[in-house]
Structure to design on (240 residues):
């Protein structure tokens, strides 16, 4: 019993184009031909084609399929690698589902990090944008501390004063506001001090993250607000 290219493709539930491609890359041996030039596939070709289909269906790259017959340990190594990749994919998908479930809740906001919807209602657009950048750059522990601080709302009036600070604010106004903000910078006036730790580990990544944060602040806040934050940090560190 033998089959044509079309027939063996149909038996394996694949396409003629796929069968020919497997010939081209050396995964499937070329069959003998009839006197009229037509290919005639045997059982061994069908078996190999089904094996290839099964392996690729399991996620084995075509480049590795050819090596699957080299030895049991080689096969096991390839399968372990694929399994690890699948495990990572499952974890990622589960994480996505958790985020989607959170965003599906009433009042959830997609323009702030997960878990911040409850404290984002009174935040302005630039504050929301900064939170998203923070979540990208800083550790989960840091973001938890930021969220707890926002939940505590330590000084709503001070927050509003900073947000409404005009770019042409004079030096006296800037310094007075910085002195009032300084205790919150070092956590002295809150039960939830915020220590921001970057996710980045290598020196290059740290520099890139710091540069990105600097550009974000310049884009989201006016020069007077940035100056006040700088002064508050210096006061907090005892350098003012």
């Amino acid at each position: 019993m033998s089959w044509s290219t079309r027939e063996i493709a149909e038996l394996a539930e694949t396409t003629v184009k796929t069968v020919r491609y497997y010939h081209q890359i050396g995964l499937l041996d070329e069959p003998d031909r009839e006197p009229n030039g037509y290919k005639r596939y045997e059982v061994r070709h069908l078996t190999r084609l089904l094996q290839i289909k099964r392996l690729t269906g399991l996620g084995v790259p075509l480049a590795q399929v050819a090596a699957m017959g080299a030895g049991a340990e080689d096969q096991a190594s390839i399968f372990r690698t694929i399994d690890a990749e699948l495990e990572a994919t499952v974890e990622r998908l589960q994480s996505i589902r958790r985020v989607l479930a959170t965003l599906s809740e009433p009042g959830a906001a997609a323009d702030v990090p997960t878990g911040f919807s409850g404290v984002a209602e009174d935040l302005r657009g630039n504050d929301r944008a900064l939170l998203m950048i923070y979540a990208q750059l800083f550790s989960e522990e840091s973001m938890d501390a930021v969220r707890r601080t926002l939940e505590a709302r330590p000084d709503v009036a001070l927050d509003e004063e900073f947000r409404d600070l005009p770019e042409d604010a004079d030096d006296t106004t800037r310094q007075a506001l910085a002195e009032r903000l300084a205790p919150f910078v070092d956590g002295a006036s809150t039960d939830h001090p915020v220590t921001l730790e970057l996710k980045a580990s290598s020196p290059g990544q740290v520099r890139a993250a710091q540069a990105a944060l600097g550009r974000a602040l310049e884009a989201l806040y006016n020069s007077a607000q940035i100056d006040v934050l700088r002064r508050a940090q210096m006061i907090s560190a005892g350098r003012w």
User: Anything to note?
Assistant: Residues 70-104 form one domain. The longest helix spans residues 72-103. The chain is about 60% helix and 0% strand. The CA atoms of residues 56 and 62 lie 7 Å apart.
